[in-house]
């Protein structure tokens, strides 16, 4: 793949856009749960495509993992795949956070519910700031008990060149959970995002 890198100014601009979008997602989650949600400032990293599957396989080697994958696409060639990855102990606690009784709904429904709040709210908040609109594919839930995480990352529905990894840490009242959000973005879409960032920077 061609080397793709963000300038320092582009990276700072993207970080600020992500901070605002994550703040909106956190606020929506707090309203949905009717409780206080504390969100640490997300940390972003750009990761080469060939290194991501093995990297996450190593990171989660000792943990059961559940993953929710959802494609998104918008105007001006903005598209990608959003992943939310939960460790099993965090995924099991989601039912408690959502107020579900045991056996009320499946783990798939639980993960889909909370991922819908976090992923679509975040992406819509990001799209609004760059004056874009996004559409979404149906979410897919993958359990590490059924499909290896590394295998799923290799089998996504499009060829991507770069991953934007966003580390998220939420604390919800007396219960905390962590998840990794990853945006898998094709090289051409990264270049389109760079153009948007440059446009925003030129307006200031």
TrEMBL record:
Highest taxon in the source lineage: Bacteria
Record-linked PANTHER family: PROTEIN PHOSPHATASE CHEZ
Keyword Hydrolase among UniProt keywords: yes
Phylogenetic placement of the source organism: Bacteria, Pseudomonadati, Pseudomonadota, Gammaproteobacteria, Alteromonadales
GO molecular function: hydrolase activity
Name of the protein this chain belongs to: Chemotaxis protein
Any Gene Ontology biological process: chemotaxis
Listed Gene3D superfamilies: CheC-like
Record CDD domains: CheC_ClassII
Record keywords, A-Z: Chemotaxis, Hydrolase
